[in-house]
Amino acid sequence: MQATKIYSFHGGIHPEENKAQSLRLPLGRPSLPSELILPLGQHIGQSSRPLVKVGDKVLKGETIAINNGFLSSFLHASTSGTISAIEERLIAHPSGLSDLCIILAPDGQDTWTTLEPLNDWQTLSKTDVLAYLSEMGIVGMGGAGFPTQVKLQGAHKKPLSHFIINAAECEPYITADDMLMREKALELILGIEILQHLVEADKVVIGIEDNKPAAIDALTSMIKQRDSKVQVAVVPTKYPSGGEKQLIQLLTGKEVPSGQHPADIGILCHNVGTCVAVYDAITFGKPLISRFTTLTGDALKAPQNVEVLLGTPVSHLLEYADSEPKKLSRLIMGGPMMGFTLNSAAVPIVKTSNCILAASKKELPPPAPEQACIRCGMCEQACPASLLPQQLLWFSKSQEFEKAEHHNLFDCIECGACSYVCPSSIPLVQYYRHSKSSIREAREATVKSDLAKQRFEARKARQDAEAAEKEAKRLARQKATPSKAAEKKKAAPAKAAPTVAAAPAATDESKKLKVDLAIGKSKLKKLQKQLLEAQENEHLEEISNLQLQVTEQEKAVALLEEQLAKTAEAAPTAAEAKVPKPAPAPVNDDIKKAKIDLAIAKAAVKKVEKALKKAEEIQAPEIEAIRQQLKEAQQRADELENALVNPATTIPKTETTAQAAPSSVDADMTKKRKIDLAIAKAGVKKAEKNIQLLKEQGKNESEIEASEWPKKLIEAQEKLAVLEAEDTTDTVAKSQAKAEPEMDLANQIKKEKIAVALAKAQINKLNKRLESAPEDADKINQDIAATEQRLQRAEALLATLIHSQTNTQENR
Amino acid sequence: MFTVLLAIGILVALSLVFGALLGYANVRFRVEGDPIVDQIDALLPQTQCGQCGHPGCRPYAEAIANGEAINHCPPGGQATIQALADLLDVEAIPLDGDHGTETAKRVAVIREDECIGCTKCIQACPVDAILGAAKQMHTVIADECTGCDLCVDPCPVDCIDMVEIGVTAKTWSWDKPQGIAATSLNIIATDRQTEVAH
């Protein structure tokens, strides 16, 4: 087998490796922690959606969260146990913020769920295999956690020339991949074969740094044994040869163009951990629930590699590796170059956690204070992406993000080589990260504001269309109404003439006018409302337009009102002349109407005053217009008030002229009373009939009494009595001109006295029954209470009647 | 004499040719609309909140193009003022407090059990971000909400809260480093400018 040609990339550094410490001990397997914290966002893209509820029992490997969209992943229970909570917990993130996590309390059994391996992956369609991988929750385990199935799909864009397996592991301290290759060489090769089946690349190369001889030996012997086509390319140790783009450059000599992905130049790159996870998933049906992680650093007495369940808290691992809290000064997840400081050891291991570095103060001293850039250019020499770190620093510092972008800021892989070599200890990468996130934020804000603009414009277009439609309708109506109004105008003077014949016609006319007026007013109200709305929303064009409409409408309404007043005036005079009796009614109506108008006008004044105040507050340009409106409205209100006072003074006159008139008004009342009387009588009859019926059916008295009819009868009788009393008093008063009201009163008093007596008798009766039948005590007591109430009512009525009788007698 | 006339003739001919060319270009390549207004509008945050005193962002952009101050936009804050200053080549001035203060990004949230379904907030929302119908509970589409506050006042039952959008792990961004540390300014003797007298 011919060795692959190794190229080189620009820059790079040689930091102290510090890999030996964690390789002294064999692979460890920590015990189950008391709880597993499984964040829903362990990968790039949308967070997963939980499938379980608090309290659910889950088995090891069971799906507990599913993907949420295309760029997302599944999540599985790392062991069997109970879901104890789904809540915000601190997560492994440079921000030190919390995110939603599923908390799993292990039951200690570690019972596997039924595993369904994909044994026929060779014959199945590739899409199905990819879907299966997605369901197994497999993501890139090198660092970013890019969902593997998405990466594999992307690889189908172009025929692949190279399938590169990244085993470089260039970052100091980390040996997890090294240990994985030693422990699981066969699984790795088989996993690579599965992936090669899926992507069908021309060449499959494992890129590995020359500082891992044991792993290289294990792989080459395994490849020989299996007679695999996989090649092992040993690259010189240099940071950051494990960067995807750098490794591609090392192995193929090709550079991934700026802003593109390796797939665009026919290359696919996967981490060794991912390959093993794919093998486990396909062959055994095991989802991604554990990973290899390096525990290292001077603060640990037993630095080593562990195969750890996802969700295990870092504190549990520190305990396992015998940490010395006194020595521990900085806890880092990831390597010293690209990792981030953890503020708390409570955060869990996730799919992308390759190392926990518990560093002592001596090992990782706090960063030296930043000094001024001396333009030495060492950063440029070190940059593996061939950027100009110094230029980028200036632009980042001065917030000139556009220029930074022009200098390809987004090609920076944040490897930290520039910061490492900087003699002024400038945290260059931090500046770049800040700039990148600022630019991203600005982009997101632009997208959002564009969307808001779109929606605003769409809304405005819709509102304009609605307004135009309304305007068209209004114009159509306006065309129809003025002709009517004109007709009436012509007709009004003629009909308002105080001729005898004109009287009924005038009322007709006023009716029509009233209808028109009502329509006009409602229109006016609508317009005013629109205007108010427009003012609130500050649509300038609409406001002026609506104001015009409002004033127009107001004029029209005023005109109608004038006409109405004229006809109304004409009507009473005409009526007075010939028919004095019905005259008061229209006058009354008019007064009522005038009062209502006045109220409306006053409300309008208030409204306009309010609008004025508001306008003054915001110093709107339409203050003058609103003031004008206010004046108009006040004028109208004053006019109406005057109008109200004038006819009011005329009323007494008309009333005196038509003294006999009240009888006609009273006639209605009498009618109503009579109807009530008839109803009451019918009620009494019905009740009596029912009682009769019951008696005929042979029921004894107590049963009859128990039924509701006697009560009803008494009630109906009472009502009838009252009504009759009223009727007689009224009719007597009216017809005989207060001849002998005391007669009727006497009658009624008699009746009431009878009612009182009846009620008293019934109470006595009931009391007796209570004595004879104590078992019905409750019911009878109730009856007694009811009757007593009735008695009181009757007595009260009686008292008032007697009082009125004495009064009338005194008056006499 | 002839040469002078010739020179004049040539110059006249040239000026006519170029004049015609410019005139043609003026007609042929006329720019529709006002590009500066578009550019200003693109920098404004498009909350359509009206805090600047204009009915929307575009009217304010037009007003700026006509000489209004660039510091009337609280939602945009100092960043927008800076961007506008860069665009218009004027001095970046602090935000005018009369129009409001710069606040953290917020979204409207309707306390749904208190909503009476009056649709007043729906009518007030400039970006149609409130969902609901008459006598039905309303809700705010958080992704579309610009946090303009315009729905808060019309609500007759005061059931709309403006809630600050907190930072999540997804929206978090790296801080800018502190810059050159104060201690490092004293490292080089010649850099020490203070206390020379000692």
Automatic annotation (TrEMBL), chain A:
It holds the Pfam family Fer4_7. The keyword Heme does not apply. Residues 493-506 have a biased composition (Low complexity). InterPro entries: 4Fe4S_Fe-S-bd, 4Fe4S_Fe_S_CS, Ion_transpt_RnfC/RsxC, Nuo51_FMN-bd, Nuo51_FMN-bd_sf, RnfC_N. The gene is rsxC. Its cofactor is [4Fe-4S] cluster. [4Fe-4S] cluster 2 binds at residues 383, 412, 415, 418. GO terms for cellular component: plasma membrane. The keyword Transport applies. The complex is composed of six subunits: RnfA, RnfB, RnfC, RnfD, RnfE and RnfG. It is a peripheral membrane protein. Its EC number is 7.-.-.-. It is an enzyme of class 7 (translocase). This is Ion-translocating oxidoreductase complex subunit C. Residues 517-643, 677-704, 749-804 form a coiled coil. Part of a membrane-bound complex that couples electron transfer with translocation of ions across the membrane. Binds 2 [4Fe-4S] clusters per subunit.
Automatic annotation (TrEMBL), chain B:
Its cofactor is [4Fe-4S] cluster. Residues 1-26 are annotated as: Hydrophobic. [4Fe-4S] cluster 3 binds at residues 125, 145, 148, 151. Belongs to the 4Fe4S bacterial-type ferredoxin family. RnfB subfamily. Pfam families: Fer4_21 (PF14697), FeS (PF04060). [4Fe-4S] cluster 1 binds at residues 49, 52, 57, 73. Keywords: 4Fe-4S, Cell inner membrane, Cell membrane, Electron transport, Iron, Iron-sulfur, Membrane, Metal-binding, Repeat, Translocase, Transport. Binds 3 [4Fe-4S] clusters. This is Ion-translocating oxidoreductase complex subunit B. It is found in: Cell inner membrane. GO terms for biological process: electron transport chain. One of its GO terms (molecular function) is 4 iron, 4 sulfur cluster binding. Part of a membrane-bound complex that couples electron transfer with translocation of ions across the membrane. [4Fe-4S] cluster 2 binds at residues 115, 118, 121, 155.
